[in-house]
Design goal:
The chain contains twelve helices and seven strands. It is of the alpha/beta class. It has a seven-stranded mixed β-sheet with strand order 2-1-3-4-5-6-7, sandwiched between helices. It is elongated. It starts with a helix and ends with a helix.
């Protein structure tokens, strides 16, 4: 790490919140000058202005409803500091600040395993992006960069990477609960199901396939399903239920897990866009 990056003073606005505290703790492993300010202290105008002036880069981790109040103070104090905002659903135009980088990550950032999507502003300084912004974001995990014309992808990413962790964990909870109901030892249950989710992710990752297969993500996933689900077997029988094709279950005719998950994702996305 260069001395310039090492000496960067990073200020996190909303560091008492869940995501703010995760990002602050993660960055503190690498950067010696990571500071936070909570909502109460920010409400003191003189302290908020001193905090802004003392930092080289600001990270906004507040609720969408609090963004304008935070930005109003920043705009009155500084017109040039780069800002990374993790506020969900607030479009770039609402910030009225030229050096604003919109980003979205998830709670896996606490282990450096998140995927963070970041949108560079139209007026982005390439040097600042590469020497100040990206090194910070990369400490949270992998990084996906997008251009301003694809800004709505951040809303989709919010649901996939942000909300998606809860949705996948919900499925994992169903597996765990069922296994325990069958009398499986809790320690064995945890080991088997943790490995199940890890191995499934690795098997469906196109990057792990031999070059030249040319399969899309959906093709890879379906290929795995087909390789496991022998017609007439146990997996096939379970999938018939998930796809709503088994009349012997208690679910409504035609209902299936795919439709339910699509509805959940669409409703969550609509909420994100309306924040």
């Amino acid at each position: 790490m260069s001395s310039e990056i090492y000496s960067t003073r990073i200020g996190i606005i909303g560091s008492e919140g869940h995501l703010g505290s995760i990002i602050k703790n993660r960055l503190s492993y690498v950067y010696p000058n990571v500071w936070g300010i909570n909502r109460t202290r920010w409400n003191t105008s003189s302290e908020a202005k001193h905090f802004i002036r003392s930092m080289d880069i600001l990270i906004v981790c507040v609720r969408p409803a609090d963004v304008e109040r935070v930005m109003h103070t920043i705009r009155r104090t500084s017109h040039y500091k780069p800002i990374i905002s993790f506020a969900a659903g607030v479009p770039y135009a609402k910030y009225n600040y030229p050096y604003l980088y919109r980003a979205m990550t998830n709670v896996a950032a606490q282990q450096g395993n998140a995927n963070t999507m970041i949108m560079r502003p139209p007026e982005a300084d390439k040097k600042i992006m590469e020497t100040r912004v990206l090194p910070i974001i990369k400490e949270l995990g992998t990084v996906t960069e997008i251009s301003p014309e694809n800004e709505d992808w951040l809303n989709v990413h919010t649901i996939l990477a942000g909300s998606g962790i809860a949705f996948v964990a919900y499925l994992e909870k169903i597996f765990v609960t069922w296994a325990l109901e069958q009398g499986l030892d809790p320690n064995i249950t945890n080991e088997v199901i943790s490995q199940l989710f890890y191995s499934t992710a690795s098997l469906t990752d196109p990057r792990s396939l031999p070059k030249g297969e040319g399969l899309s993500d959906v093709d890879v996933i379906q290929k795995l399903i087909d390789s496991v689900a022998t017609r007439g077997g146990t997996t096939w029988a379970g999938l018939e239920v998930l796809e709503g094709n088994n009349p012997l279950t208690e679910t409504s005719p035609g209902s299936n897990l795919e439709t339910l998950l699509h509805d959940a994702l669409n409703i969550a996305l609509e909420r994100c866009r309306n924040l």
